[in-house]
Design goal:
Oligomer: single chain
Number of strands: 11
Shape: globular
Distance between the termini: 40 Å
Low-confidence stretches: none
Length: about 110
C-alpha cells in the first residue's frame, strides 16, 4: 500500500513563493503519474498539475507559467514550486497517485 505525505505548506505574501513536497512510501514498483490538486475554502477540489512517468507535465490554466511540478524518482518525491502566488491560490494542496491521496498541506496567501 502506497502512502503519500505532503509538506511545505505555510504562509506567503502575494507575489511570494512556496515549494511543496509529496513523498511516497510503501509498495512502489515503478514511477507513476502523480498530480497536485487543491481545495479552497467552500470550493470543490480542483486539479492543479500532473507529472507523468516520462516527466512530461501538464498544468491547469490558472497556474500555468507560475507553478512547476517536478519529481525525484530516487526519493519517490514530487514537488510543486509555486511562484508569483496570488490570494486565490490559498487552499489545501493534495498530491495523488493512482487514486491514493495524501492528507494535504495548507497554503495561505495573504498580506
Amino acid at each position: 500500500q502506497v502512502q503519500l505525505m505532503e509538506s511545505g505548506g505555510g504562509w506567503a505574501q502575494p507575489g511570494g513563493s512556496l515549494r511543496l513536497s509529496c513523498a511516497a512510501s510503501g509498495s512502489i514498483v515503478s514511477p507513476n503519474s502523480m498530480g497536485w490538486y487543491r481545495q479552497a475554502p467552500g470550493k470543490q477540489r480542483e486539479w492543479v498539475a500532473t507529472i507523468n512517468a516520462d516527466r512530461s507535465t501538464i498544468y491547469a490554466n490558472s497556474v500555468k507559467g507560475r507553478f512547476t511540478i517536478s519529481r525525484d524518482n530516487a526519493k519517490n518525491t514530487v514537488y510543486l514550486q509555486m511562484n508569483s502566488l496570488k490570494r486565490e491560490d490559498t487552499a489545501v494542496y493534495y498530491c495523488m497517485r493512482a487514486g491514493i491521496w495524501g492528507q494535504g498541506t495548507l497554503v495561505t496567501v495573504s498580506s
